[in-house]
Write a structure and sequence with these properties.
heterotrimer, A alpha/beta (about 350), B mainly alpha (about 300), C mainly alpha (about 325), A: alpha/beta, 8-stranded mixed sheet, two-stranded parallel sheet, 10 strands, B: about 300 residues, mainly alpha, 12 helices
């Protein structure tokens, strides 16, 4: 009887182990085969998946239906923030990434020969919500840096008041709102602050996820817009499209020439015209253009498509990118606050696009 | 209580005992007040969601996907479909495994193994859902991309302990006389389980499934990293990422657009109604199953 | 007289020498699921630790004591988030546990029988509210309410206490504490109710017979009797509060610094993972977030196992009575 019992136990254990191993293998195997379609659809796929910047998301959402109609390709875009986009394309979980911040050298290494293609021109705008304070308040870079580092804490601070004579500033406490997720707008904003304030540059620096010392974090441009709207005394930074879309106030920043240009297509184009040097990594930083550009908006930026140099969907990607930087794609820009790409940049992007292969 | 006092000959009505009685009444009132506060909070939350969500529940919600940027309007059609599919897949994975686990635990396992399994189930139930999201992200998403299937695996892991423990409870309720009678008639253990115990515990298993479904439908953390980049259209292919109701609520809750916020409330209302209905149904069913099994004794 | 072996499965079957395939099959199948459970648990721990490994190697245990979280300098530390987690969870417990025990008492002793099931059901329904819905309510309703009415009052009247100093904010630690206590109450309340119901009637009636009021009976007999179980349930509630990511990240305001006050934004370990994991700027940041997840796992493992051991010891002390 004991022999039977022991035999039974051993047999049970053996079969159980076998079943468990088979089950686990089946689970891993099936997820391996069924999930791979997002990465490799073969060159006949009609879907392009992308993820990243919330700055360029409004423009992409205009491209999606139009491109589907003209080319029959469905674009699926997840606006998860530039950081998320870089992450996703590095892991090849999407076909293209979108980021307003160019790849850092570490990210470029991790991404394994990814190309950066400027495909939109826009800006980051400072917005605020203070009861009784009208639109278009004037601020300078150093004052902005002081606000976001916590040195200036009330709206009626003399440094703000001296820039805005005639504006009745209340004593409301300032709540800086920043991006808690990986954000190209954060990169643009902190690049600007680093350029105009050596204090900021040494203490906090420029990054898609800087360590803001004070204030409140929100996710995505929509989150910052919502938080600013909901909090009296709040100040934050959002991509230009969100100002009009959510009827937000915009602050006017003093540029290097001493003027306060508005973040319109005119101001952004002036910045793009002033900075034409393309960096070795393919990026064109537009923040704080030199004083010679009198009307340049100081927090302008290009937004980049991040594409792996070799991709099974090279054909579809090249076609889509050509559409995006071409006149049809760029025509959707101005109503959203995006001026069209300068022709020199379009030419540059075209040469980079040509490098994509299967 | 005072009636008892009058009957109790040992009660002495003195100032001290009056103070004790008052103290007692006060504490009882506080306890009742605490229960009242809990109920009020529940009602406030439900009422908030209903008040803001009901006006936003219209045909658009179910027939449209999200509107493009800057355009007011849109609905959560793809999110509803996504949640239904992901919840169904998660349940299909978790219920068989959970029930078999419970059977092993109650019928076949030696006592120490049984204790170990129960402990492991409790530990798994206590793992933060965000950690499970990271786990499945590293295991499945990094090599295969996001998919509703990956999200379902994460959800299945989360509801597995729920289903296993609930099934265990109901299996243990089945009277041993049934088991012994079956064995006395010559049936093997396995035959007993399949033909005698499972049928009587069936109601409890259904309850466990309902509770598991309600739980899976409402979880957001596992979806954050497994199914957050999806097409703005109805997707039915589980190897692709899908929209989902909890994620739609999550994103819309942080949106500045008044319409988006209303969509969030409406989705929250639908989800909450579904989850609460599932919980209530599960509760009532389990009471009924308990009564049925009691009658078998 | 032959002794009868009462185990039915040990009675030799007259016609078969070996068990049927179905018997072994079912045993093996169910045993396989048990192995699957263990495999899932092991894989979970392994995968999380694997993702965290680069950060563990870089920072070691100093991660726990460092208050830096800086992508630019590459310095990451969990201290601010550990403090945030402890602060929100402890405050949530302080609010929730007394209330929940009182509710458990109400449901087991004080409520009229008619009310017990419906009220009990309603308390459990609190647990069924999805956390994202609580977070939505927190962002749009509760947070602004706290900022407009509660926090100014607290600041005016109790502002000398550091916890209530500072400017009112609709996103902050306090809304997170409220949301967490709503989640903890049903857990502790339902366990408390079970515990109170398990107190033997003789003990209760004995106290009453000696002239105790109902409250005195509760305080001197029931509470000591169930104290171990209440500790276990509090630990389970603590584990729940520590692990909540979604509702907390929606209302806490994702700040980098930690403050002594409950009003300004803060962050917890789980909430930071939810906010930053999807789009990290560097791989070290991603590993550090995984390191936070490892810490969360350790905390939840410890509290969970401790709670189980306490209640296991209790059950043995009671002689295995349910």
């Amino acid at each position: 009887m004991e022999m039977n019992g022991m035999q039974r136990v051993t047999k049970t254990a053996a079969v159980a182990m076998g079943l468990a191993i088979v089950a686990l293998a089946a689970a891993c195997g099936s997820s391996g085969s069924s999930g791979s379609s997002s990465g490799s659809g073969g060159s006949t796929s009609t879907v392009l998946t992308g993820a990243g910047s919330t700055l360029v998301a409004p423009l992409i959402s205009q491209w999606e239906p139009d491109y589907a109609k003209s080319a029959g390709i469905t674009i699926t875009y997840g606006a998860v923030g530039s950081g998320g986009g870089i992450d996703a394309i590095t892991n090849r979980t999407v076909d293209f990434g979108a980021s307003d911040a160019p790849l850092s050298s570490d990210q470029a290494t991790a991404c394994k020969s990814c190309l950066q293609i400027p495909w939109a021109l826009a800006a980051t705008v400072v917005t605020y919500n203070v009861k009784g304070v009208p639109d278009k308040l004037k601020l300078t870079g150093p004052v902005l840096a002081a606000i976001f580092s916590g040195s200036i804490t009330s709206w009626n601070d003399s440094q703000i008041a001296s820039l805005n004579p005639g504006v009745n500033l209340p004593s409301t406490h300032i709540t800086p709102i920043y991006r808690s997720d990986g954000s190209g707008d954060s990169f643009v904003f902190t690049s600007y602050l680093s350029a105009v304030s050596s204090d900021w540059k040494s203490k906090i620096g420029a990054s898609t996820q800087p360590a803001f010392p004070t204030g409140q974090g929100a996710e995505k441009n929509s989150g910052v817009a919502a938080a600013v709207q909901a909090t009296d005394g709040a100040i934050g930074y959002v991509a230009v499209s969100y100002i009009a879309a959510d009827s937000l106030n915009e602050a006017l920043l003093q540029n290097a020439a001493g003027n306060y240009p508005e973040p319109t297509t005119k101001g952004i184009t002036a910045a793009a015209d002033a900075v034409t040097t393309i960096q070795p990594d393919g990026s064109v930083p537009l923040v704080n253009p030199p004083a010679s550009a009198a009307d340049a908006y100081p927090m302008s930026t290009y937004s980049y498509a991040i594409i792996p140099q070799t991709s099974p969907k090279a054909k579809q990607l090249k076609a889509f990118l050509t559409y995006a930087i071409g006149p049809t794609g760029q025509a959707f820009g101005p109503p959203l606050g995006f001026p069209p790409l300068p022709s020199a940049i379009v030419a540059h992007s075209k040469t980079v696009i040509a490098k994509i292969t299967t | 209580m005072s009636a008892q006092d009058d009957r109790n000959p040992l009660t002495v009505v003195s100032p001290r005992s009056r103070r004790r009685k008052l103290q007692g009444r006060l504490m009882e009132l506080l306890a009742s007040f605490a229960a009242l506060v809990a109920i009020v909070v529940l009602l406030v939350v439900i009422f908030s969601v209903a008040k803001r969500g009901l006006p936003a529940v219209n045909a658009d919600l179910f027939t449209q996907v999200a509107a493009p940027f800057g355009v007011e309007g849109g609905g959560i059609k793809n999110a509803i479909v996504g949640t239904l599919i992901m919840t169904a897949m998660a349940t299909a994975m978790a219920v068989p495994i959970g029930v078999l686990l419970a059977i092993f635990d109650t019928e076949f396992a030696p006592p120490q193994v049984s204790v170990a399994i129960r402990m492991t189930l409790n530990v798994l139930a206590g793992v933060p859902t965000i950690v499970i999201g990271i786990f499945i992200f590293g295991l499945v998403v990094v090599s295969n991309g996001q998919s509703a299937f990956a999200a379902s695996i994460a959800l299945a892991i989360i509801i597995l302990p729920v289903i296993a423990r609930a099934t265990e409870e109901v299996l243990l309720l089945v009277p041993s006389t049934l088991r012994e009678g079956s064995m006395a008639l010559g049936a093997t253990r396995a035959r007993t389980v399949v033909s005698v115990i499972l049928p009587s515990a069936f109601g409890g298993i259904v309850t466990a499934t309902i509770v598991g479904v309600a739980r899976a439908a409402g979880e957001t953390a596992p979806i954050l990293f497994t199914s957050s980049i999806f097409a703005n259209a109805v997707v039915t292919d589980p190897s692709q990422p899908m929209a989902s109701m909890p994620f739609a609520i999550f994103t819309n809750s942080e949106s500045p657009s008044h319409h988006d916020q209303q969509v969030a409330w409406a989705a929250a209302l639908l989800l909450m109604a579904f989850v609460l209905l599932g919980s209530i149904t599960g509760r009532l069913l389990s009471l009924r199953t308990r009564r049925q099994i009691e009658q078998m004794r | 007289m032959t002794t009868t072996n009462l185990d039915p499965s040990s009675i030799p079957l007259p016609t078969r020498r070996r068990p049927r395939i179905g018997e072994t099959g079912l045993r093996a199948l169910t045993a396989a699921t048990a192995l699957l459970l263990v495999a899932i648990m092991a894989l979970l721990v392994y995968e999380t630790a694997r993702q965290a490994w680069p950060s563990i190697q870089e920072f070691g245990l100093g991660f726990i004591t460092s208050d830096q979280w800086n992508v630019v300098t590459g310095q990451f530390g969990a201290l601010n988030f550990i403090i945030g987690t402890l602060l929100t969870s402890v405050v949530a417990l302080v609010i929730a546990v007394p209330m929940a025990i009182a509710i458990g008492l109400f449901l087991s002793e004080l409520a009229p029988r008619v009310l017990r099931t419906p009220v009990g059901l309603m308390v459990e329904l609190l647990a069924a509210i999805p956390s994202v819905v609580l977070g939505l309510w927190g962002i749009l309703v509760m947070g602004p309410f706290l900022a407009e009415h509660v926090e100014p009052w607290l600041s005016d009247h109790l502002g000398f206490i550091p916890l209530f100093s500072g400017y009112p904010s609709s996103q902050g630690v306090l809304p997170a504490c409220v949301v967490l206590s709503i989640m903890v109450v049903p857990i502790v309340a339902s366990i408390s109710r079970e515990l109170f119901l398990s107190v033997p009637g003789e003990l209760k009636q004995g106290a009453m017979a000696l002239g105790a009021t109902r409250w005195e009976m509760v305080r001197s007999v029931m509470l000591p009797y169930v104290s171990g179980g209440l500790v276990a349930s509090t630990m389970l509630g603590f584990g729940r509060a520590v692990g909540e990511a979604i509702a907390v990240t929606q209302v806490i305001g994702g700040a980098n610094a930690i403050s002594r006050s409950l009003f300004p934004p803060g962050d917890t370990m789980a909430s930071r993972i939810a906010a930053q994991y999807a789009g990290t700027a560097t791989s070290l940041q991603r590993s550090s977030l995984a390191y936070l997840a490892v810490l969360l796992l350790i905390i939840s493992l410890i509290t969970n196992i401790a709670a189980q051991l306490i209640s296991g010891r209790l059950q043995r002390r009671l002689g295995g009575e349910a």
